[in-house]
Amino acid sequence: MSDVAGLKKDLTRRMEGALEVLHKEFTGLRTGRASASLLDPVMVEAYGAMTPLNQVGSVSVPESRMLSVQVWDKSMVKAVEKAIRNAGLGLNPAADGTLIRVPIPALNEERRTELGKVAGKYAEQARISVRNVRRDGMDQLKKWEKDSEISEDILRSEEKEIQKLTDKVIGEIDEALAHKEQEIMQV
C-alpha cells in the first residue's frame, strides 16, 4: 500500500540531511576569521592513539584572528602543536605553557578565489544529492501509480509537491553558498 505522507516525510528528511552536510563542509572552509570549528578535523597522537583535538584540550576564540587551545595534560603540548602544524590548514601554532596560540593569517586574493571554487563544488554536490532524492521520490510515485495504488491525479499533485520541496531546499543551498562566498571574499 502506498504511503504518500511517509514518502514526503522521508524525502524532506533526506534533503535536509544534504543541507546539513553542506553546512558542516562549509564550517571546515577557512575564511579570514577565527572559528573554533576550524580545528575540528585535527587529530593528535595521544597515549598511543589518534585522538580528536577537542578530547585533549579546549579550543576558544579570544580574538577575531586568533585561536587558543588550552591543553589539559602538560605532556601533550608538543604533540598538539605538531598536530595543528601538520594538519594542512596553513596554521603556525605557538606554545606558551599549556596554552597554544594559533594566529589566523589573512587570506590572499588567490586563496580566496580558490576557497570560493571549493565552496561552489560543495554546494553542487549538495544540489546533486537533493536532485537524487527528488528522483527517488518521483520513481516511487510512478511505481505506485503503475501498480494502481494511487491515481494519476494524486501522482501529478504529489510530483508538484516534491518539486516545490526540491526548489525550496536548492534555494537554501544557493543562499548558504552566497553567504559563504561573501564571508570568504570579505577582507
From TrEMBL:
Database matches in CDD domains: RRF
All residue ranges annotated as the Ribosome recycling factor domain in the record: 22-185
Keywords from the named record: Coiled coil, Cytoplasm, Protein biosynthesis
Coiled coil: 141-175
Entry's Gene Ontology BP terms: cytoplasmic translational termination
Pfam families found in the cross-reference section: RRF
Primary location class: cytoplasm
Localization per record: Cytoplasm
GO molecular function: ribosomal large subunit binding
GO cellular component assignments: cytosol
Job of this protein: Responsible for the release of ribosomes from messenger RNA at the termination of protein biosynthesis. May increase the efficiency of translation by recycling ribosomes from one round of translation to another.
Protein family membership: Belongs to the RRF family.
Identification of the protein by name: Ribosome-recycling factor
